Structure prediction request, 148 residues.
Amino acid sequence: MKACVRVFGIVLPILLSLNMSAESLEELRKRAEDGDAAAQCDLGLRYAKGEGVSKDATEAVKWWRRAAEQGDARAQAILGVMYAFGEGVPQNKIEAYKWLKLAAEAGESGIAEVRLRVTAAMTPAQIGEAHRLVREFKPKKTAISVNK
Prediction:
């Protein structure tokens, strides 16, 4: 049995590696603003948990999206869950499926149950659209991700 953490009323598996860095909020925000996907993911978690900042689902999603768009599998999984439950974003099964599938393809495990629930609620046309979005996805490069 995997341990879980509750974020905005959603139970997320710990397997998403939701452990925040020990650095200061200012250092973390600077790295996140500079395009560091890991920092963006951690900053999203701080907003999700309300640690050092006001709890804010919309702000959490903003940072997770930035990391997910760079190809960060952990952020993709979290973003997919947020879309699946409509937390911090309008509920959107196509977007949920897209991000969850991208995360799974990148090796993120433990999201199969959410993916099954999302898929079961979709029409074949919606699944086809989600597959198209997955095929067309190209990670965005930032100055940091290019120079690493």
